[in-house]
Amino acid sequence: MQAMTDKRHYITGCKRLPFSVDVARLQAEVASLPPTAWGNQRAPVHQETVSVFLRGQAPMLGVAEDLDQPLLQPCTYIKELLQEVLPGRCGKCLLASLQPGGTVYAHMDSANEYFLESFRVHVPVFTNEQVHFFSGRRIFHMAAGEVWSVNNLAPHAVLNLHPREARVHLIFDIFPEAAAVELLARLPEAPGIENEMLFRQVASRRPPAAQKR
Questions:
Q1: What is the 3-state secondary structure of the chain?
Q2: What's the domain count of the chain?
Q3: Domain containing 137 — which CATH number?
Q4: 201 vs 3, more confident
Q5: Which domain holds residue 200?
Q6: Is 86's pLDDT higher than 80?
Q7: Which pTM does this prediction carry?
Q8: Choosing a second label site near 121 at 20 to 30 A (CA), which of 7, 12, 55, 199?
Q9: Within a domain: 1
């Protein structure tokens, strides 16, 4: 396993990974999960989301081990993705659904050993053109089936401005082998786009109860 002291040496904002996903297969697998599986035990910045943890549990619960959850067992394609997208050991894995018109409030994840030494991967499952992912002041549009690595130690937020459609991402952390570190090091940063109006909109939506996490 490659020792990595700080992932911010390899990614500043967002990088798209050169990996192809069977989006129809992924969508079908996610849609097959029972509605009762979705809940919210995450930090207040995620209060407009519901999620399903497939490996590990929410950091706020303080559970150290990231073990497979029973709902991962039938998700054969997701298990393949956890093994194949980036070489390394998988930590936490969850599905996160942001409600129509909802916000993931601007925050930074804790700069602890777990988040410093893992690469955060996002795979959009269900999304639309009115979803805006912010890293810093720039917007990144991620299409269904694309694979992205995100620096979650930088300020980030999400706006889903669609009035009817939820935005669902598969999110997981990889503690990388050397080949994964080398890949991230040579991939270019995605440029993103600037939109001051939308940035002010997401920045103004932070409620008092939302915490940095």
A1: CCCCCCHHHCCCCEEECCCCCCHHHHHHHHHCCCHHHCECCCCHHHCCEEEEEEECCCHHHCCCCCCECHHHCCCHHHHHHHHHCCCEEEEEEEEEEECCCCEEEEECCCCCHHHHCCEEEEEEEECCCCEEEEECCEEECCCCCCCEEECCCCCEEEEECCCCCCEEEEEEEEEECHHHHHHHHHCCCCCCEECHHHHHHHHHCCCCCCCCC
A2: 1
A3: 2.60.120.330
A4: 201
A5: 7-204
A6: yes
A7: 0.94
A8: 199
A9: no
pLDDT band at 206 (very low <50, low <70, confident <90, very high): confident
pLDDT of residue 209: 63
Name the band, by pLDDT with cuts 50, 70 and 90, for residue 4: low
Evaluate whether residue 2 is within a structural domain: no
